[in-house]
Design goal:
single chain, 398 residues, alpha+beta, OB fold (Dihydrolipoamide Acetyltransferase, E2P), Dihydrolipoamide Transferase, Chloramphenicol Acetyltransferase, 3 domains, seven-stranded mixed sheet, four-stranded antiparallel sheet, 8 helices, globular
Length: 398
């Protein structure tokens, strides 16, 4: 028998270390060639490491959540033969890591008892407090309506009881990366927030018309591609907003290219896929690329270059967008734009009361770089384009 030391391979692209996010083996396990050993995270990509040899695991090194430098021994194995097999070459290691990159897929849930539950708001609130899914309850009220008594019956006790205990969860992987980046941003950047109301009635009419007559292969348009097109028009006049600030060097990097990051919620946490060279894309191409990179971020197939390098970020919660927010800037950028929820409400128009589709837009700027006047001017110009969408597509009209 010989001994084989599995080391964290040199993945390249400047990666010096990786975080251990999951173990698939323990000492004593028999592992086949190409069998899974552990998952690690480098930057924003989660990959699994597989064994290049068949053998028996004798030791593993590193806890979940710990960092391992490139070249560190992660697994020791007993293998057939007299000597340790030659280590993977860098190119082979890079190929293996790329081939093993994968998304973590949730296990399918069992079929619900009640696929379309109905209940009063107070009953729904009580279900949330008790941690009960309404889909698991068969209602005894009229037309199958779920009552509080049904929740109590499901819970197995007549009334709510005080709960005790504290669950400690160690932050690892993407969740820890997000926490570190948000803390860094708030520590280093003096945020200046600005909120303005946008009347998007005309734009919504245009969007509906374009979607109703789009050609085969054209994606369905959301609001974000319109925001992107308006930003493309304006940013050349506000170059210090499409920029990175290097605090250590004391330099501001103003970019000619516009790489728009789009904050995207995934099963593994918040990521920012990037629509690169947005200035070279029309409305439909922005929508197409936006759909592609956000889907790649959600299913875990996004490449490293698709998750980094943005020069300004759009963040939107869609229907959950609320009235206003204070978005955190994506360091080292200096600005972030956050559309909130679009609602229809009555608006006074001269002597008349009319219904309009209105949205608040929240934004944050790095006050070291962007003065309040410039931030307000940029948002007011953005408001003008979004409220008169034809101007977005007319050269020189903005």
């Amino acid at each position: 028998m010989g001994r084989y030391l599995f080391r964290l391979p040199d993945i390249g692209e400047g990666v010096a270390e990786a975080e251990i996010t999951a173990w698939h083996v323990k000492p004593g396990d028999r592992i086949a060639e190409d069998g899974p050993l552990l998952d690690v995270m480098t930057d924003k990509a989660t990959v699994d490491m597989t064994s290049p040899v068949e053998g028996t695991v004798t030791a593993i090194h590193g806890d979940v959540g710990s960092m391992a430098p490139v070249g560190a021994v992660l697994v020791e194995l007993d293998v057939a033969g007299e000597s340790e097999p030659a280590p993977l070459k860098r190119a082979e290691a890079q190929k293996d890591v790329r081939q093993n990159a994968r998304a973590v897929e949730a296990a399918p849930s069992p079929a619900p008892i009640n696929s379309d539950p109905t209940a009063s708001p107070s009953t729904r609130r009580r279900a949330r407090e008790w941690g009960i899914k309404l889909e698991d309850i068969k209602g005894s009220g009229p037309h199958g309506r779920i009552l509080v008594e049904d929740l109590e019956r499901h819970r197995g006790q007549p009334k709510a009881q005080p709960r005790e205990g504290i669950e400690e969860i160690k932050l690892t992987g993407m969740r820890r990366r997000i926490a570190d980046r948000m803390a860094q941003s708030k520590r280093q950047i003096p945020h200046f927030a600005y909120v303005e109301e946008f009347d998007l009635t005309e734009l919504e009419g245009l969007r509906a018309e374009l979607n109703a007559h789009r050609k085969d292969g054209q994606p369905k348009l959301t609001l974000l591609p319109f925001f992107m097109q308006a930003m493309i028009r304006l940013l050349p006049e506000f170059p210090s907003i499409n920029a990175h600030y290097d605090e250590a060097a004391g330099t501001l990097k103003r970019y000619a290219a516009i790489h728009i990051g789009v904050a995207t919620q995934t099963e593994n946490g918040l990521t920012v896929p990037v629509v690169r060279q947005a200035e070279s894309r029309d409305l439909w191409d922005c929508a197409r690329e936006l759909a592609r990179v956000t889907e790649a971020a959600r299913d875990g197939s996004a490449a490293r270059e698709e998750l980094s390098g943005s020069t300004i970020t759009l963040t939107s919660l869609g229907a959950m967008g609320g009235i206003a927010a204070t978005p955190i800037i994506n360091h080292p950028e200096v600005a972030i734009i956050g559309p909130n929820k679009l609602t229809e409400r009555p608006v006074i128009d001269g002597a008349f009361l009319t219904r309009r589709k209105v949205m608040n837009l929240s934004s944050s700027f790095d006050h070291r770089i962007v003065d309040g006047y410039d931030a307000a001017s940029f948002i007011q110009r953005l408001k003008r384009l979004m409220e008169r969408p034809a101007l977005i597509f007319i050269d020189g009209a903005h």
